[in-house]
Amino acid sequence: xxxRYVISACLCGMPTRYDGRSKxxxxxxxxxxxxxxxxxxxPECMGGLPTPRPPAELCGERVVNTEGVDVTAQYRSGAxxxxxxxxxxxxxxxxxxxxxxxxxxxxxxxGTFSKQLIPGRGVTAxxxxxxxxxxxxxxxxx
Length: 142
Ligand code: SF4
Prior knowledge:
With 142 residues, this protein is of the alpha/beta class. It contains 4 helices and 8 strands; from the N terminus they run βαβαββαβββαβ. It binds iron/sulfur cluster (SF4). Iron/sulfur cluster binds next to α2.
């Protein structure tokens, strides 16, 4: 099957999260994987960040990690690479992990590292949406 979605790699069982873990794979996502309908992407890894890595949050236009390091360039690179994959494969939809500073579709943490969510989009989610790609999270993509 021709791929129809890019999907956050951590939703596909790949241990790409900052803590070196993945998220549980839902039966619906497993079906997509089995059918070949998805291309897994991890923008943070593609941008050159290691796994595990210090957690990072959006601070306005920048992304900064808990060590005070500005990782905006890596986040933007991963977002651009994800958009390029969508364009190469004619993909118009993305399924992305909510709350992530890269992949969050509706909410992100507020930049204070105090577990406070605010409405907003991660760097990759925002770039995809600005380029006409529908972005949904792991709960509502269906
Ligand atoms: S950047 Fe996206 S795909 Fe990668 S670990 Fe974070 S939420 Fe998952």
